Amino acid sequence: MRIFNLSGRLSLAVEGGAVDVETASAGRFSADVQAVYDRWGEFRSWADAYRGGPDRAVHEAEVGPPVPSPRQVFAIGMNFVSHAAEAGVAPPATPVVFTKFPASITGPYAEIVLPSDTVDFEVELVAVIGRRARNVPVTEAWSYIAGLTAGQDISDRGVQLGGTPPQFSMGKSFEGFSPIGPAMVTADEFDDPEDIELGCWLSGERMQKGRTNDFIFGIPQLVAYLSAIVPLLPGDLIFTGTPSGVGWTREPRRTITPEDELVTDIAGIGEMRHRFVRQS
To answer: Which of the listed residues 17, 224, 236, 253 has the most CB atoms within 10 Å of its CB?
Structure first.
């Protein structure tokens, strides 16, 4: 199952396009995209049984973030073996966690303002929580996941690394620095949801390519770890980490400029494209 945010309305992907959920369900579910996660089990049962056709096409100009206003956004640092190696650090013994503030969420085809010339890219698989999770065992963690989406953990390295201690959350939470989309896809749509290819290009040049089987901590381990400390709420996001190839560690260093287009692709989810403008 795939869901979209089309012009701010919850939409379900069907063969040939998409269907407006509020209309198709005769008002059982509202058009509010974020609200569906609080009723995810009920919605999933309805959507799995739906057999109607499309009432709209999916146009990029109408596609917004499939989780527009999460209550909590967690992000995991150094969670790929390859990324830890390029950063010159040992793989962490426990997940490295920071937050990206919810106001940084934007859609898959948005224009993003660059606050400086030290902005970097990080392709990430993003897990979406489907029901309240507290003290979840690793073996049960996937049952708490509504689905997966593509994300970019865009980072102003000057802000992130400019102080002592570093300011990860601030450097990664500028407006637009957490794009997600284009769809939220349930785990059963993947051949193996624990081995997914992801990557990105900057102005046509391949920057990152990896697979989530290179995770240090898989999604079940992250859900178990986080839920042992704080309740995970429906619609919360977990940015699960990035593979090697980020711009900051390259020689020469490669950061995002206003002339660049950033293309992000995760197999089974789809492609995001972002252009950038300099802050006035």
So the answer is: 236
Delineate the domains of the chain, giving CATH numbers in brackets: 2-63 (no CATH), 73-278 (3.90.850.10)
Whether residue 105 contacts residue 180, with contact meaning beta carbons closer than 8 Å, is answered with: yes
Q: Name every residue whose Cβ is closer than 8 Å to that of residue 34 and which is 6 or more positions away in sequence.
A: 67, 68, 69, 70, 235
116 DSSP 8-state letter: S
Q: How far is CA 148 from CA 11, 26, 78, 113, 269, in A?
A: 16, 27, 20, 26, 8
Output the CA torsion sign for 206, 207, 212, 213.
positive
Q: Helix, strand or coil for residue 212?
A: helix
Spatial neighbors of 17 by CB under 8 A, at least 6 apart, are: 54, 55, 56, 57, 58
β-sheet bridge partners, residue 4: 11
CA-based max dimension of the chain? 57
Cβ neighbours around 250 below 10 Å, total? 13
What is the mean pLDDT of each successive set of 10 residues along the chain, which is 280 residues long?
98 98 98 98 98 96 98 97 90 97 98 98 98 98 98 98 94 98 98 98 98 98 98 98 96 97 98 95
The pairing of strands 111-114 and 9-14 is unpaired
CA dihedral (13, 200, 155, 141) positive or negative: positive
- Of the candidates 98, 168, 138, the one whose C-alpha atom is nearest the C-alpha of residue 228 is 138
